[in-house]
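Trying the structure run again after the queue cleared.
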Amino acid sequence: MQINTVRLRAMIGWLGMLLPWIVVLLVGYIPHSISATWYTNACTPFMIILGSAAFLLISYKGYERLDDVILTCSGIAGLMICLFPCAISEENVKVGTFLIDQQVSSAIHYIFALIFFGLLAYNSFFLFTKSTGEMSQKKKIRNQIYRVCGAGMMLSFLILLLPPFPCRVWLMETFALFFFGVSFLTKADIYPWLFCDTPYKD
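Done. Tokens:
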């Protein structure tokens, strides 16, 4: 079976961009973080959306071996985010698929979240910008979008340096996922407003 990489890129992009807003609609308020909705009625959609995006990243076929490795590792990191929930209290309770201590699970969660966005930022900044032969003017513009998205994913973490406020982590995650989504939607090369070279035909 051959996977349609154009649709795959677009699906990954939309899943990433919509996830923060889907959990907000489900819980009825802006949560402390997207990950914290693991403990709410939005847990199942959160797991399905992030898990699906993770599997799609693992399934993604890049142009080179490095592309495959980076995206597969980012997909695995996304799955780990699902399996090891963050802590929402100081209580010594067992959480997650493997029922480990909440604080240990939270540490694993945040490590893999950093790996997830770090790899995707690297992919957007350094791999999506590669080209063979002479680049079209639209490709040059797309490369600028990729670089902005790659930098944006990492710079989003600077929000955590702001004085604490209720939805600070959610805001950081939302910005990072926005840049992640735009990067993959641009790579899909099917949206004229993202400077595609040729209209996509199925």
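The chain has a mean pLDDT of 91. Worth checking whether this holds up in the mutant runs.
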